[in-house]
Amino acid sequence: MPGENIADEQISCPIKNFQVNTYYTIIDIVSTQILERFNDQSTPLYKDISLFHEKRLKKVAEQSNLPTDAFDGFEMVYGKFVQADDLRREYKQFSDSYFMFKKLMILPEKIHKTDDIDEEIETSDNTESDIDSEDLDLATNQGNISTVFKVCHQNNLKEVFPSIYIALCICLTLPVSSSSPERAFSKLKLIKSRLRSTMGEDRLESLMLISCEKDINIDNEKVIKTLTTYSTVLKNLL
After folding, report:
1. Is the dihedral of CA 89, 92, 96, 101 positive or negative?
2. Which residues contact 142 (CB under 8 A, 6 or more apart)?
3. Is the Cβ–Cβ distance between 74 and 84 less than 8 Å?
4. Distance of alpha carbon 107 from its chain centroid, rounded?
């Protein structure tokens, strides 16, 4: 058609070349990733996970405005382990008492903390400019899920708030980064090197499993018995 470029025609303008081959490609990848990660199923889950931040705990404790559909998304994904009704009931009590438990955890550290003599002498100006540690955590985004779990764990609240404890454990074990796939690709480069370029897919997959899942305990005797069933010669030798 008139005015259209041939598929194999090179783009001479560097700005147009960057726009087509780089900019549009990045925009397409980013938009695709956003749509995949924040879909109708995952968005409610992310909203429920955000309830375990100290900011939300403080807001619910002060205003008692827990959404009626809170933890419905969490139950939709992890209903095998926790129920939304139990989480809502425990969350209201947990938000009311959380900061009290946090102060009980920090109190021994403050009592046994030794400071320099110069730091112990406080003037009135310094006193007025001091920031409460709780507000500082909220302002600097330190009150994350790991902090909430630490307070819950060190105060032995597992039996008091069992559903909250399970939900926190689930949140802390979610694979939120791409480090595992990156480690797998690093292993792939080590296993399938230049000298092993003709390695078959089955052998490569087996070696990758051995390398990446080496933390799994394997019964060597069971493996040997399994291998002997595939070869009569090996069975006679063993």
Report:
1. positive
2. 136
3. yes
4. 29
